[in-house]
Amino acid sequence: MPYLGESAALLTAACWALNSVCFTVAGRRVGSASVNLGRLLMALAAMILVHQVALGSPFPLQAGAARLGWLGASGLIGFALGDAVLFEAFVLIGARLSMLLMTLSPIFSALLAWMFFRQSLSLAKILAMVVTLAGIAWVVWDGGEQEAHPHLWRGILLGIGGAFGQSVGMIFSLFGLAGGFSPISANLIRVSAGTIALLLYFGATGRLRGTLGSMRDGRATAFIALGALTGPVLGVVLSLIAISRSSMGVAATLMSLSPVILLPVSHFTFKEKVGGHAILGTLLALAGAAALFFV
Question: H or E element: which one contains 54?
Fold first, then answer.
């Protein structure tokens, strides 16, 4: 199917935009720790069911040690360590600047894919990626005076670390997907690794019961469930299809469009002011994304 990878990447961005809204609403009710663990527990249950229905078994035991290792490490980096680093950056420098730093992920992804898989990009695609990333950065950047952050450089380093961690996680996933391995099986392994890591962490720190106890909030649980389905379940499966059916740099760039997709949602749902720079940045990002399909 032509442009399957690129289309999957765009759908991934839409899924991540939706689940970020769900997790924002839920997080304001029960806290980010409960959201983080709850979404993975729900995603794990859903992925086991999907795997049973689609592939006839609850878990891909035939994956082999090497593939389990690559995908397990990818889940640990993406779902446990990567999110922890990114959430800390949110605390230190805010979501807007952290999201701006996350736009470095496609650049890291393209470089790592070139180093490990010899994936190359044409000059036209590189220019289209630059245009798309510039548009995303313009949307995320508020265009005015920035709030002073006492831990600015620490937050910047954590934000860059989050972007790099996301790219490394995707590269590990690409190793695990080698040989036509099912994205559904790959995601189940990743979610399992991330869930086990968080359960061990909260158990070791004595926070497991309190974290799970907050799930008694029915409204928050409903939003976490929707976010889990559109994020760690559908969104991640689509992202694995994207990186396996198109170049890493192009897929990562298109998946970074979530802030652009979120713009009208933020305006109408959270009543955030949308300035002219955000509208122009959106048009620039969409133009660059469209170009990636045709150059």
Answer: helix 32-55
- The residue type found at 38 is G
By the 8 A CB rule, do 23 and 235 touch? no
| Residue 180: both structure tokens together | 């036509």
- Asked if residues 57 and 184 have their Cβ atoms less than 8 Å apart, the reply is no
Torsion of Cα atoms, 121 then 124 then 130 then 136, to 10°? -100
Kind and range of the H or E run holding 103: none
- Residues in CB range of 251: below 8 A, 6 or more apart: 5, 6, 8, 9, 109, 239, 242, 243
Q: Give CA–CA dist 184/187, Å, rounded.
A: 5
φ and ψ of 141, to 5 deg: -70, 135
Distances (CA, A) of 80 to 39, 165, 192, 193: 12, 11, 11, 9
Q: What is the pLDDT of residues 175-197, one digit of tens each?
A: 999 999 999 999 999 999 999 99
The whole-model pTM stands at 0.85
Q: How many CB atoms lie within 10 A of CB 41?
A: 17
Which long-range contacts link 48-57 to residues 24+ away (Cβ below 8 Å)? 48/188, 50/184, 50/188, 50/233, 51/184, 51/185, 51/188, 54/184, 55/182, 55/184, 55/185
Structure confidence at residue 149 as a pLDDT band (50, 70, 90): low
Tell me how far apart the alpha carbons of residues 180 and 35 are, in angstroms, rounded to a whole number: 33
